[in-house]
Design brief:
Number of helices: 7
Strand content: 15-25%
Distance between the termini: 32 Å
Mean pLDDT: 89
CATH class: Alpha Beta
CATH topology: Creatine Amidinohydrolase
Number of domains: 1
Low-confidence stretches: 23-40
CATH superfamily: Creatinase/methionine aminopeptidase superfamily
Number of strands: 17
CATH architecture: Alpha-Beta Complex
């Protein structure tokens, strides 16, 4: 319950006792219900909130995106090229009447991003890049379903990997889950980074600063950035029911600095050559816990939000 010295619910910036307290007490004495907004909604924040129709569109896009990730899962193993993964993703998407969002986006030449080992993100699939035992690869999928975007990614082990590599991937998976758990109505957007960064640092890893999650809907990247490290810009946005965005922490075993390959202008690598991993879901803010829109069929069946190397993240 709001207290006398708390900021007034109306968003005036005044203390409650100097703003609406008298009026609310008057209404209460007349046994009339008092409509007190739970959250302060600025005009800027309200434009981030999806309508019921838009949410339905996002749910359908997320569902297919999850289906696509489960489809590609068995193929991601030693001996396959990242170019073959791209072809499989493209064909499955088009055959189901949908659009690979990455293809042609700002000139990107493929339908999926495949980031191997020290590649942080935006790795371009190639017939010359063949996955081998001990590698890790992030497969990042974005699809357009009836005008709405679904976006998710997972990092896969290729066979048996060293323990330090396994540690990195598990830390990254848990970082995503912690970020999703922190994304609740009424919290500042910065709560996500505050749940991720200290945990990652305590595990001896680092959070990439240059790349973030993002609002998503009828556009690939909408409105605001979702930081995974603390940034004061994220303090200014309050999470509201109806917001949809991605959380996609990119975590390195070394420093957080990255570089972009000059030859293609897309491939982002760790500056120090250390390994990098990433997991991503598209989520919807609700009145309760955030809803993951990009759950895969296998995740739904198991009642988990991620499952990595036999470890379930519920």
């Amino acid at each position: 319950m709001i207290q006398r010295n708390d900021p007034c619910w109306c968003g005036s910036g005044k203390k409650y006792k100097k703003c609406h307290l008298f009026e609310d007490e008057k209404h209460q004495s007349m046994t009339e219900p008092v409509a007190q907004p739970v959250l302060r909604r600025s005009r800027k924040e309200r434009k981030y909130v999806k309508s019921a129709r838009e949410i339905n569109g996002m749910e359908r896009a997320g569902a297919f995106n999850g289906e696509l990730l489960d489809y590609i899962r068995p193929f991601v193993k030693a001996g396959i090229s990242t170019g073959e993964i791209d072809s499989l993703v493209h064909d499955y998407t088009v055959e189901h009447g949908h659009i690979p969002a990455c293809l042609g986006y700002r000139g990107y030449p493929k339908s999926v991003c495949t980031s191997v080992n020290n590649i942080v993100c935006h790795g371009i699939p190639s017939s010359g890049v063949v996955l081998k035992e001990g590698d890790i690869v992030n497969v990042d999928l974005t699809t357009i379903v009836d005008g709405y975007y679904g976006d998710s990614s997972e990092t896969f082990f290729i066979g048996t990997v060293p323990e330090n590599v396994r540690h990195l991937v598990m830390v990254t998976a848990e970082a995503l889950i912690r970020g999703i758990d922190a994304a609740r109505a009424g919290a500042p957007l910065s709560a996500i980074a505050d749940a991720i960064e200290p945990f990652v640092n305590n595990q001896g890893c680092s959070v990439v600063h240059q790349y973030t999650g993002h609002g998503i809907g009828r556009k690939f990247h909408e409105h605001f950035s979702v930081y995974h490290h603390h940034d004061s810009d994220a303090d200014r946005i309050t999470l509201l029911p109806g917001m949809t965005f991605t959380i996609e922490p990119m975590i390195n075993t070394g420093g957080w600095e990255v570089i972009t390959d000059r030859d293609d202008g897309w491939t982002v690598r760790t500056a120090d050559g250390s390994l990098s991993a990433q997991f991503e879901h598209t989520i919807l803010i609700t009145e309760g816990p955030a809803k993951v829109l990009t759950l895969t069929p296998s995740q739904k069946a198991a009642g988990v939000r991620l499952s990595v190397d036999g470890v379930n993240f519920t």
